[in-house]
Automatic annotation (TrEMBL):
InterPro entries: GNK2 (IPR002902), GNK2_sf (IPR038408). Residues 17-126 form the Gnk2-homologous domain. Pfam families: Stress-antifung. This is Gnk2-homologous domain-containing protein. Keywords: Repeat, Signal.
Amino acid sequence: LLPTLAAAGIDFRREAPPPGHTCGAQGTYAPGSAYEANLRRLGATLPSQANASSCKCSPGNNAGERPDRVIASAYCYWLPDGSSPDCGACITRAFREAERLCPYHRQAMVVVDGGACSVCFHDEQRMEEGMGVGLTGRKRSISATPISVI
């Protein structure tokens, strides 16, 4: 299906999700924890990385070590021309909104500014455990319980 849609000329990087947010089911972190420090580190670096990239995005970044490793991605959805707003500033707002709307959640996805940009992050280890992948990377038993992937 994806190759067919790509052949039709649909550019997925420019298709913004609807504005809103989702707070994931990976639990919470404590204020002042290593997880929070790693999330703040990503929140400080992703905006400038996205501004510097040709895609106005910063996918698949990580900070920290297990069990507090955070994976985060940020995307802007407008065409990079002279009239476009600042992608990095939009991503900074998205991180702030994630903190406000999903306080201390280890997983969140937030879309801001009418769909202009989005940020998503999750706990690497808890995501793997939810998918049935252990620390060795080998498949464990698969649960029938659906998981939220954002």
